[in-house]
Design goal:
Structural class: alpha+beta
Number of domains: 3
Largest sheet: 4 strands, antiparallel
Number of helices: 10
Helix content: 40-55%
Strand content: 15-25%
Length: about 280
């Protein structure tokens, strides 16, 4: 059995007739690819967002089995690439307005099973970024690569270095990083709890002192005048119902208020707002 092959995916909903490699088919071809092993099945399982994968997911959701066919097998990868390019050229690409294929290149690229060096991975990443930086928003949507428009070259280099590192080494580094972040989170959440509470309490106290409160100027029965904050008068035992409901919200009195508190009568002459200070201390 030959190692390489060229395959074609179809849209089974279409009954249009096409000629592929000299044979007539009754479905519209949508993608031509080259592969080996189970490469042809990866378009059914991939999580990437390409037109072919989206089509296959939609067909499966509708209860339709995605359709593909291996057109020809080859012993040489170069021969498979050449045949792939030929099929794409004959059928035509959709983005160029020449046919129904979702392919975004003329084919013939890629290398099965190649292991890239660190420099080659870095160069590939930089070339990909340069390519996607030159695309419009619509072209990026065709590629399903919206995020690559703003990819940072340093991140590309970091990603390549990460792939090159051995799995055990990276796992060890990640474990240490997770432990460090967990410890830092624990310290932020649980350490110095009482100190945080005291700090919050002092902050609230300072804020309340800055807030202006009602200050009353009132006349006693003997004709003397005194002044005090409404808050302090109520805490001292003056009737809340007798004072607060008449005073709160009124900075301008229509007339002096006569109120009986602590077995004596006072006349409230003036109401104003001042920054709070404990006048009873």
């Amino acid at each position: 059995m030959s190692e390489f092959y060229v395959y074609v995916y179809f849209d089974p909903r279409s009954t249009d007739k096409y000629t592929i490699n000299g044979k007539e088919v009754n479905s519209k071809p949508v993608y031509v690819g080259k592969g080996r092993g189970n490469r042809v099945l990866k378009h059914l399982k991939s999580t990437k967002k390409t037109k072919l994968i989206n089509l296959n997911k939609h067909l499966i959701k509708e209860g339709i089995v995605p359709s593909y066919q291996i057109i020809k097998e080859f012993d040489s990868e170069n021969a498979a690439h050449a045949f792939e390019k030929k099929l794409i050229s004959e059928i035509g690409r959709e983005d160029l307005g020449e046919g129904p294929l979702f392919n975004l290149t003329d084919g013939g690229e890629g290398c099965s099973g190649k292991v890239y060096t660190e420099n080659e991975l870095l160069e590939r990443g930089m070339r990909a970024k340069a390519y996607f930086d030159g695309l419009t928003r619509e072209e990026l949507k065709l590629h399903g690569q919206k995020s690559l428009k703003n990819r940072n070259p340093k991140n590309v280099e970091y990603g390549n270095i990460r792939r090159i590192k051995s799995r055990n080494e990276w796992s060890h580094e990640m474990t240490e990083d997770v432990e460090r972040r967990r410890r830092a989170s624990w310290e932020r959440s649980y350490c110095n709890t009482q100190e945080k509470k005291d700090r919050r309490k002092n902050k609230c106290s300072r804020a309340s002192l800055k807030r202006k409160m009602f200050y009353l100027t009132y006349e006693n029965e003997d004709g003397s005048f005194e002044g005090a904050f409404l808050k302090d008068l109520i805490s001292r035992g003056w009737g809340k119902d007798a004072i607060e409901w008449r005073i709160k919200g009124k900075l301008v009195l229509e007339k002096p208020y006569r109120v009986r508190v602590e077995n004596r009568t006072i006349i409230i002459r003036k109401v104003e707002k001042k920054p709070y200070s404990n006048s009873l201390s």
